[in-house]
Design brief:
There is one protein chain. By secondary structure, this protein is an all-alpha fold. About 75% of the residues lie in helices and about 0% in strands. It has four helices and no strands. Helix 3 packs antiparallel against helix 4. The N and C termini lie far apart (about 55 Å).
Amino acid sequence: MAGEEINEDYPVEIHEYLSTFENSIGAVDEMLKTMMSVSRNELLQKLDPLEQAKVDLVSAYTLNSMFWVYLATQGVNPKEHPVKQELERIRVYMNRVKEITDKEKGRQAGQEF
């Protein structure tokens, strides 16, 4: 959208938001292409169980977040959709993994002295 003429099909005030959104979608597309270039099994084999959990949680959170955006573009209030509870559930597990990671870092730091 950068450098393009402003389309008169939508209010001028939202042009910058749409341009930013389009750039964000492009970035997500590039990340997805990168992730999809390696098989999931191949990727997970290179990671320890905690890192595997992180990949799975981030993937689930991203997918559900994208569905949240899709619902919003369809005029559905995602706050009233089960996807909200799913995102909250995933967030709980992400916090648990973070706590475990922080404990491991604390143990490693204590061993260095």
